[in-house]
What we know:
Bound molecules: 5-S-methyl-1-O-phosphono-5-thio-D-ribulose
CATH topology of the largest domain: Rossmann fold
Strand order of the largest sheet: 6-5-4-7-10-15-16
Helix content: 40-55%
CATH class of the largest domain: Alpha Beta
Amino acid sequence: MSVLPQPLRTLWLNAEEELxxxxxxxxxxxxxxxxxxxxxxxxxxxxxxxxxGAPLIGATAAYGIWLAAKAAPAADWKNSLAQADAYLRDSRxxxxxxxxxxxxxxxxxxxxxxLAEAQSACRQEADAIVEEDIEICFQIGQxxxxxxxxxxxxxxGEPVQILTHCNAGMMGCIRWGTISSPIYQALxxxxxxxxxxxxTRPRNQGSKLxxxxxxxxxxxxxxxxxxxxxxxxxxxxVDMVLVGTDRTTRQGDVxxxxxxxxxxxxxxxxxxxxxxxxxxxTIDWEIMDGxxxxxxxxxDAEEVRFVDGLTPSGAYExxxxxxxxxxARNYGFDVTPARLVTGLITxxxxxxxxxxxxxxxxxxxxx
Length: 367
Ligand code: MRU
């Protein structure tokens, strides 16, 4: 992605060792890099979705702890880091990566003997989280590629039609993305494909981020309204659905952006495979039943009542799309039960959406 100052990453440290992120609120209209200097700025960036997407939220929070360590008073640094940890845990509730990364950071700083050691260990751990995500997403691409290849082999040269929801691409991760990694790798192998991109109301991660990202990478795609997927599936215009996840339970239920469940229902009714691409950092091994146990974020109703974008004259505007006093509710995620998921694509390979499937790939978490 040549448009970015640091090619192919959503988060990096600049020469002054300052945390840099791409502001995802203003994409695709502006490419704006932000410097996050404090834990409070990291919290704000996560909460307000300057950075979003499960792996990126986790990685950004990890650097938030590093920033807290850099600012901590020598006399009381452990207490200061404990406060930063609790504070960042409150930024968003659904993506488990946030909590897994903060747990990792906590283990790291708790083992340090002094502040200098904590600062250096926190930096190393945050860097490791970032590098691991890049490798994990690359491996997801390798495994997902096989599925795309199998479908392509049946299509007699016609493009493989993929439908996706939200943005589980590079913008939700550090580099490759989860659903976009197999897509980029398939394209690089010369496989013909086309992606139906759900706009993903109310924050429009599909139209703002996935469409932008695919445009940058030359992925053939068409933007569709969120409700079009069922119609396309009924008319054989979709070969596979491929989405990401914010939290996957031990039994293979997945929480993803609101509307994902409806896509899974439509896919089931039309015998279309529904795949979820996930780094193991989105598996919550502590819970089984996604419907009962995954906390679903409810965001500000104003996100539903207003839309924003560019006017024909090029001005950026926000407009209300309902009567002034219309109340709204804004549920951020829904849970797709494992029975509707054809399979999970992880960095260790492909498995059924089930406890047996996940534990076979990750035996270290066997119950
Ligand atoms: O509210 P968001 O934009 O953070 O929600 C993101 C999603 O639902 C993504 O699909 C998910 O995090 C996977 S990102 C690889």
